[in-house]
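Appendix B, record 7
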Amino acid sequence: MTGKAVYILEGGVEAELFSHKGKGVINHMWFGGNNRGWDDGLGNLKIRIYVDGEEIPSIDMSLLMGHGIGFLDPYAPWGNHRIGKTGWPGGLYNSYRIPFHRSIRITGQIPNGEQVKSARFWYSIRGTENIPIEFSGVKIPDNARLKLYKLEDYNAKSMEEFNMCHIDSISGMLYQVAIAANSTGWGYLESTVRAYIDKSEKPLLLSSGLEDYFLGTYYFNRGRYVTPMAGLTHFEEKDHSFSAFRLHEEDPLFFSNGLRLTLVCGEKTERESWTAPPTNYTTYVWVYEW
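Structure tokens (predicted):
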């Protein structure tokens, strides 16, 4: 389904963009617009995805953060096979595999007072019926559902360990993580990403530092980049802010009895300690569950 120069977005109104009954997989979404303030206005557009008649959507994302972009950053072009931003204004795309079994409904909503119905909007959403989802040769179970866990504008204390997601007593696969954060210094980048799998008290360490988790190094000292697995979508020295995404398609992380994914605002090892100032975080964790 496509919308070409449509006038369906009005502050506070949830507009239907796509609906389909049956079984299948959404595998393409693209969004654009040319009105003034697109990135810092429609960039706050909420995309909600309701699967199989659910009342609370499995996925409720802001347009930019849902594509791994924090701080309403307009930088473009960049992209890989799964996610990207090709222009300004707009030009956001993703090819997330979103399975549904009976029906799917996708909506868009902008905040009250942020835009008016005279704003033109372009979009394209497509899917395919009755196809499997595979990553690294592993077929995702037929009953899987892609869910988004969000932590928004969370102010973490120095050396606090906090949950980005806490999933209890089910099976699944970690798919993607996006983080936007800022502070008065870069010390918070020392954080090791920890995964507590199947209720284990001992975490699996997914990185040696936060920038390392996103395949960066030395506090992102070479600036922006995008690879097939990760990308740095925002970087600003003045306010020590960054946003980045990390895909787990090539190195899938599976769990069979729950998952807890955490960060620490700073870091401590047996030999050293890195104290970080209080830091503001927004985190998006995408998980297939079955």
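Remarks on this record: The helical segments are 210-213. The first strand starts at residue 2 and ends at 6.
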